[in-house]
Fold:
Amino acid sequence: MELVTEDPETTVSESAEEISHMSRTTELGDISDMDAEPVFPPQDTIYSCMLDTAMGPLLYYNQGDIRWKDYLYGGSDRIAKYGCGPVCVAMIINSFSYQSVTPVEMADWSAENGCYARQSGSYHSLIPKSLSAFGLKVDSVTDRTVEESTRLLRSGHILVALMGKGSLTQNGHFIIIAQLAPSGNVYIADPASYENSTKEWDLQLLMDELKRSYDSGGPLWAVSFPSKEEGVSDS
Structure:
């Protein structure tokens, strides 16, 4: 569901029960339609919807949302162009930790904790550093195969993927691989595209488009709730 407004001060304070679920299709996503910078709709838009994931319902955020698209990440770079990292982690933290955060707050957190990269977006360290700081379990996925990714999704994990140069995008782009579709494809949460988030995606194609970089456990991380023994930390 998209809520449209022309007032940049408008906020959405609905609970998860009051927000509609995203309507998904069986249409297969085209990798050439995915980019790190959103294509803006003709009107100012607030995105407000839930989507299902292997961990449970997730509140979707979009980089082009009027509430933060022009906010300067690190004091220099607009979230609309460079904010896929903070927007991704804000979706996850807001939905699965005990704290409520926005993309603006996570952009500030990233800059304050050394994860902001000027004119490049975010360092890969943003994913493990931020998610663990807010009490979630995050592990590097070194076996970046369809079989292992499918196993993780089936066992209640979501995946954060850093997509790289190639047919997908000219810049690194963080997305969330949310859950398996009945067809064996996957659904994603793409912070740069609401439409991409409604479609099915070929998991092998996504694995093939991962960024060829391996620092901070990237380019693929598995996220889950901590065990009772590990507990939940406060940031």
